[in-house]
Each structure stands twice: as structure tokens, then as C-alpha cells.
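User: Design a sequence. Structure:
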């Protein structure tokens, strides 16, 4: 009987944890893109955002990431490029903001802030995967 009660209690606890995580819905990749990326990359990721014109480097068209990679969507590389922290350490210069830093800074230097930054980057890459063209 005691074991049964423990199992039920664990179940309730898990539900509470899940519920507390879902009370703050994370934004969708499409919403994140519109809010953070469209200014440079354009509303439809074609590379024609208004702020992009001021960049020294050409803004890549993000609809051909798979096509330019032999038809394979380069998910891992894109997560690294968008996060940017490893990239900056390795290559130094870049014009695009370092989103891993930016998303984490918005919510403070906690572990959950880092997790949220990673979740945002995942959602963005998932969104980019849906807009690929041949
Ligand atoms: C201030 C302008 C600017 C903003 C805002 C911006 N980018 Fe970029 N992005 C660039 C530029 C410029 C490049 C070309 C590489 C470089 O010079 O940094 C680039 C490159 C990229 C690449 C690399 C493509 C490849 O083939 O390597 C990806 C992916 C990307 N951006 C995604 C995003 C996402 C997702 C966001 C929003 C979270 C975003 N960018 C916001 C300017 C921007």
C-alpha cells in the first residue's frame, strides 16, 4: 500500500512540475524569427530585411540552407551558427548578433535562462527547416 501511495505521489509531483513548466508557453520559431531575425533576413527569410542593407556582408537567403548543403538540412551547424558563442571563439568576427548570448541575457544568468536560450534556438532551427526550398 505504501508503495502505491508513493507512486501516486510521484505522479502528482511530476504533473505539477510539467504544469509549472507549461504555464509560460515558449514562443514559436516563426514568432521568434519575426521578432528577432526578420529585420535583417526579411519576413520570408529571403535576405531582404530593412536592416540588412546596412550590413557589410550579404545577408544569406535562409530558404536554401538544405539545397546548398547537398539537400541535407544542416541542423547542428545552424544551431551553432545562430547561438554564435562557439563560433565567435573560433573565428572572431561576425556581423550577426550572438543569439545564444542575447537570448540568455534577456532572462538572466541562470541555468533556466540558458535552457530557454537553447529552446529558442531549437525552435528557430525547426522553423527554418519548414521553409526550405529545393
Ligand atoms: C543585424 C542583422 C542580423 C540579424 C538581426 C540576424 N542575422 Fe542572421 N545573419 C546576418 C548576417 C550578416 C549573416 C552572414 C554571416 C555573418 O556575417 O555574420 C547571417 C547569417 C545567418 C545564418 C547562416 C547561414 C549559413 O549558411 O551559414 C543563419 C542560419 C542566420 N543568420 C540565422 C538568423 C536567425 C535565426 C536570426 C534571428 C534569431 C538572425 N539570423 C538574425 C545578419 C543578421
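Assistant: Done.
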Amino acid at each position: 500500500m505504501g508503495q502505491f501511495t508513493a507512486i501516486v505521489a510521484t505522479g502528482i509531483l511530476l504533473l505539477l512540475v510539467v504544469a509549472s513548466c507549461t504555464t509560460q508557453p515558449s514562443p514559436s520559431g516563426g514568432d521568434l524569427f519575426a521578432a528577432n531575425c526578420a529585420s535583417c533576413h526579411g519576413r520570408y527569410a529571403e535576405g531582404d530585411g530593412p536592416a540588412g542593407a546596412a550590413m557589410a556582408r550579404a545577408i544569406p537567403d535562409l530558404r536554401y540552407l538544405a539545397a546548398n548543403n547537398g539537400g541535407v538540412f544542416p541542423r547542428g551547424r545552424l544551431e551553432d551558427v545562430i547561438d554564435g558563442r562557439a563560433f565567435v571563439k573560433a573565428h572572431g568576427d561576425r556581423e550577426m548578433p550572438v543569439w545564444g548570448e542575447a537570448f540568455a541575457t534577456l532572462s538572466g544568468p541562470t541555468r533556466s535562462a540558458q535552457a530557454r536560450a537553447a529552446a529558442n534556438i531549437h525552435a528557430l532551427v525547426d522553423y527554418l527547416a519548414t521553409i526550405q526550398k529545393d
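Residues 36-37, 39-41, 51, 55, 57, 59-60, 62, 65, 78, 81-82, 94-97, 99, 124 surround heme C (CB under 6 Å). The chain has a mean pLDDT of 86.
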